[in-house]
Amino acid sequence: MSNLLSLNSGKILVTGGAGFIGSALIWQLNQMGQKNILVSDFLGQDEKYRNLVPLAYSDYLEADDLLKEIESDSNSIKDVKLVFHLGACSATTEKDCRYLIENNYEYTKAIAQWALRNNARFVYASSAATYGNGSQGMLDDQTKLNALRPLNMYGYSKHMFDIYAREHGFLDKVVGLKYFNIFGPNEHHKGDMRSVVHKAFRQICTEGIVSLFKSYHPDYKDGEQMRDFLYVKDAVKMTIALGMNPNAGGIYNIGSGEAHTWLELVTAIFTALGKDPKIEFIPMPESLQAKYQYYTCADISRLRATGYDMPVTPLATAVYDYVQNYLVPERYLGD
């Protein structure tokens, strides 16, 4: 890629920086020699602060303090030239609509408007959850946003900002990222929102077996529901590349471009552990059955058209790296 922005042109702000993708992004920036990073997050009583311990950055602000700085147009953040806004409530089961609107929509609006006023590059996390059941396709085409029907309030809160940015005429000036099924190091704190790789690894270690949901769709056998799984190391490389490319604008899918079954995924985990697969199928909770996605696959042609030509790590290779180099030794990125 040519005509890239310089990572050394100013400070980089990473919101949600102690979280899963945020901390992985900071790790990748460190790998690229960048340490002039302002990290922001809500550090409560969980263990996600551990994600930050091995990483290098210049300063930290709690998310509510960052919002005050933004609303006052404080000189203390004027040197920020690139914003990766990854902070959000990512729980697809969250029912508090007011909380999701404030945290995922209003907060994003405030940071985006500040970035545009101050000529800072703005990259934000949307979500593949905005595609709903996929009946309208999963093409990152902003002209078709109004046809999408998210299946949960989390997806809708992300969709709301996509629509807002388009209707207010600045979507082409920023970058929105629709992350698909991301897995990898530094997700331990996410509870039920952890990837199946992390959950299955724990279950294999304690019970010797992996439980998968039965299928309730006639076109998919048990375990053959399909997802676009992407290693977090690939996801952050894609994210940084789009952030550094001034010609990139609008919404981009962040995925592998290939769908795999749950059976393929968990078999790769057993293989990484040197064990024979042992899988059981359990009933899916009724509350999930109407909202379950049976197939997701990212069309990443828009990403490729920006000049991003790095290969995607094969699923089995990514799972092996995650299991053997992080889960088994209980390591964090940067350790």
Summed up, the helix count is 10
Q: For the report, how would you describe the main beta sheet?
A: 7 strands, parallel
Order of helices and strands: EHEEHEHEHEEHEEEHEEHEHHH
Structural class: alpha/beta
Rg computed from alpha carbons, rounded to a whole number of angstroms: 19 Å
Widest sheet: strand order? 3-2-1-4-5-6-11
Strand content bin = 15-25%
Residue-averaged pLDDT: 94
Helix proportion: 25-40%
- How far apart lie the N and C ends? 30 Å
* Strand runs, count: 13
Spatial shape: globular
Q: Detail the poorly predicted runs.
A: none
List the helices and strands and how they pair.
Blueprint: E1 11-15, H1 20-31, E2 37-41, E3 59-62, H2 63-71, E4 80-85, H3 97-117, E5 121-125, H4 153-167, E6 175-179, E7 181-183, H5 196-207, E8 210-213, E9 226-227, E10 229-231, H6 232-244, E11 250-254, E12 260-261, H7 262-272, E13 279-282, H8 286-289, H9 301-305, H10 315-327
Parallel strand pairs: 1-2, 1-4, 2-3, 4-5, 5-6, 6-11, 7-10, 8-13
Antiparallel strand pairs: 9-12
Helix pairs in contact: 1-6, 3-4, 5-7, 7-10
